[in-house]
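Box S2. Input/output pair 1.
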Amino acid sequence: MLEISLNMYHAVALGAFLFWLGGVITSKISLLNRYCIPAPLVGGLCFSIVNCILYSTGAASITFDDTLQSVFMIMFFTTVGFTVSIPALLKGGKAVLLCLLVAVVMIPVQNFLGGGVMALFGKDPLLGIGCGSIALVGGPGTAAAYGPELEAAGAVGGSVVSIAAATFGLVAGSLMGGPTARSIIQRYNLTSTENDSEVMELSDETAEEKARAERVDTDSFTNAAILLIVASGIGTLLTALFNAIKIGPFTFTFPTYIGAMVIAAIIRNFCDSKRIILPSTAIDIWGSVSLSIFLAIALMTLKLWELASLAVPMVVMLLAQTVLMFFFARFVVFNVMGRDYEAAVMTSAFCGFGMGATPNAMANMQAITQKYGPAPTAYFVVPLVGSLFIDFMNTIIITSFLNLL
């Protein structure tokens, strides 16, 4: 068998190329755009399939130096930390707090279900967590980040299982969101009480506040890079401090980026309190690029042949997760959020980011509101919870599960 070894520069160059290739493919195939499938996921999976064929046929074995993958991963999750705004959470009021609460409740429910199904099949429960909130609430980025953590804890195939589940979740969350909301609206004869002009005004205010009227130039881009590098550097020290914590016989293991997320959140909220404007748009750009390269590298290094022995448990588990999400969204989210039209729209959104990602949630809401009318509260609440808070909370809960198991 031909052995091919790629150093860290080769690996990141290939990852960047696959990100571009994925973008080309998604632009040509409307189905991928419809379900918000990320370009690096498409490009990375294409390569991993080719790699699987080469390995399975004995033609070649490709290995990678993933040093720069870790760098881009930490940079991305540091940008996540910069989105955590306590004033924004408080300003959102009761609706934001309730939506965040039901989302936080959903995280351990997904993990208990996943771990339980895997245990029934005699598999490592950690793999079930990989098919739980790591992949579903977390999405492809979190799945790619925590896969190695699962494998380090002894769950062989943790990376490929998590990514496969995340890919399924992106599609399932888009497919089930619209029908779930439509059935609620039709059953209770719900209607929108808002007009388009009010929604446009709210959307413009929210967008303006989020962007902070910032123009991305050389200075803002440089300042964003400095903030990310400093936060990630100090964050690694904080992570080491977290990992040194020992309570009695118990020790704790935290992912490398958790400290960077905490430091970034502290910086963000300190700046908010002092009315210091951060280069938020530039930080978002850095986060998008870092996630794309990190995700492409993570996907191209998947060992798809490890899925063979886990195929049946995964199918059963993902079907169970889909059923769980339907009942949770239909009967918990709808009731908690107020049992009105806005609640129905948020139900469709919850299916999106509870199974996939925030873009899926926004696409679900758009499909519903275009047919039944505006839902300004939902359009305000969902991006705050899905983009600003849920990833941070998910990371904390996942880390707790990994330490307990």
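Box S3. Input/output pair 2.
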Amino acid sequence: MRHVRSTAHRTPLVALALLATATALVACGGDDSDDGAGQPAPAASQFPAPDGRSLDELLADESASDLVVSPAGAVFTEGRNRFGFGVFTVDQQQITDADVAIYAAPAPDNEPVQGPFPARIESLETEPEFTARSTADDPDAAKVVYVTDLVLDRPGEWRLIALVRTDDGLSAARVTPSLVVERSDPIPAPGEQAPSVRTPTTEDVGDVGEIDTRVPHDTMHDEDLADVLGKKPVVLLFATPALCVSRVCGPVVDVAEQLKAKYGDEVAFIHMEIYEDNDPNQQLREQVSAYDLRTEPWVFVIDRNGRVDSRIEGAFSVSELDDAISRVAG
């Protein structure tokens, strides 16, 4: 399924439903002590085994929760998938320090549950010098995201629940919306050749604001993808900091900016905005269409041979992107 190519392109926000539902991954909710370091996943043994139960049976056996758990992505394929999500109270305050595990089952709900898949907590914070003013001044800017790996072994609808352990104990909540798993998708995948398209640079425009909505503008507009693809590693980031309702795009651009300072000229960093004229009522930029994107943000880490080494949809941390870049750099 390809993204909707309409003049009023709204599907990028669907990918981050947790933020549209709960305003944002806000630091003011839940635990205020987040230090930017993230938190490793708890042991699977801390959560009950499925024991052949269905999702409904597992829900019935655990205390019901009034927490809201929502995905941070919309593109899932058969096999192993990175799954990011948020956990919120009903009044839209984020829970930032809970132990969480995801359980999954193909629809209908009488299928046996798979799991648990414990989640780590990834911080989206950057060093102060790389945090944009537009991020720092936005009280709804994303700060953390829960991440686990889900094994989804067949296409179709998958329904999920989260078991969340807080100070009040263990409780269960449905993850909404459910996931639609495809056998494959048209977005460039690891091992595939990255599409070669021209990306605008500062030399191509009179004002860098034409190709960058971040405040201040980032430094990832010096190189054209068509000139560097197949010659050096590339980090290609699709995001619109000022227009991303999910409030994730600003922080992930900051993440990439911090790592650009680390890797210097060894890796090409390219930030692509989403809409023509930076106007959500206009068409998608041709580069977005060339990569068949229907959500945002996305980052592609491309090796020096021009092949995609890894891709991430939605929010990601400095450590996640750094790990991906280190595989293709040097």
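Caption for Box S3: The chain has eight helices and 13 strands. Residues 249-263 form the longest helix (15 residues).
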